[in-house]
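User: Just a sanity check before I run the rest of the batch. Below are the structure tokens for the first item. I only need the designed sequence back.
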């Protein structure tokens, strides 16, 4: 599996004119862990959702090339996209309580994802749902399968979401800030879980995050976005050596227990960054 993006542009028309959200983004993604980082509104989620063509109806999406394993996403019809979404590429949202159906138990929701992409009967699908809950380290999978979203903690809800995305056995996982609503210890558990599953299944990961220290430890590559553009790309372990002033500014805004300061720096922006 390989995702290839060349000069992706996404814009939204409005009564006041056209807002350009993504301005010429290019990168490739294979069986690796790639992070997109940047401030809110920089175009991270729009870029990721473009791969699945999950954009508002008024979005204008253009690219020299946007392909998923050789399939042209720009010209693909809805039937082709349904064969990719879920089945070959899964999307984990930020907060499970807004993504899970509140009136259906989670076991049935996972089973529905299984049947949608793999077929089979209800009993078989529910058994597979329990097996998937075991894979994401749910201690009492049968009990949890019969539970509703409001009965789960944040960490358990996120594990359920991961199990649901794994049901079709995808080749790519897109995770949109999957740990931002969790405390530090649960964050580490979820990331270890995702890392183990990626290795077992030889999957690729596109991780959207604001957490620079987290992605520097967890990912292989980091793409830094500002105002709809990728302003810097580097190996994750070398993020602390970033050269672009925007990336340096983001790093300097972070608190440190090793070198504490009285007042954190504020990010100073340059209009030229948006034009690069």
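Assistant: Here's the designed sequence for the first item:
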């Amino acid at each position: 599996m390989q995702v290839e993006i060349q000069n992706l542009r996404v814009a939204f028309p409005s009564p006041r004119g056209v807002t350009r959200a993504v301005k010429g983004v290019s990168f490739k993604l294979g069986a690796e862990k790639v992070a997109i980082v940047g401030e809110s509104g920089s175009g991270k989620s729009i870029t990721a959702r473009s791969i699945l063509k999950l954009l508002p109806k008024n979005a204008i999406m253009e690219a020299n090339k946007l392909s998923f394993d050789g399939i042209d996403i720009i010209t693909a019809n809805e039937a082709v996209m349904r064969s990719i979404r879920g089945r070959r590429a899964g999307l984990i949202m930020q907060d499970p309580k807004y993504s899970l159906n509140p009136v259906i138990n989670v076991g049935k929701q996972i089973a529905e994802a299984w049947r949608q992409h793999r077929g089979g009967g209800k009993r078989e699908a529910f058994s597979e749902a329990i097996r998937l809950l075991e894979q994401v380290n749910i201690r009492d999978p049968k009990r949890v399968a019969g539970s509703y979203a409001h009965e789960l903690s944040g960490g358990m809800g996120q594990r359920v979401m991961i199990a649901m995305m794994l049901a079709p056995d995808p080749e790519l996982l897109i995770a949109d800030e999957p740990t931002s609503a969790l405390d530090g210890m649960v964050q580490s558990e979820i990331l270890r879980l995702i890392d183990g599953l990626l290795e077992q299944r030889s999957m690729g990961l596109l991780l959207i995050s604001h957490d620079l220290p987290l992605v520097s430890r967890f990912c292989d590559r980091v793409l830094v976005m500002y105002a709809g553009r990728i302003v810097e790309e580097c190996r994750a372990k070398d993020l602390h050596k970033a050269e672009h002033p925007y990336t340096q500014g983001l790093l300097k805004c972070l608190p440190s227990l090793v070198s504490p300061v009285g007042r954190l720096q504020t990010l100073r922006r340059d209009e030229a960054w948006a034009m690069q």
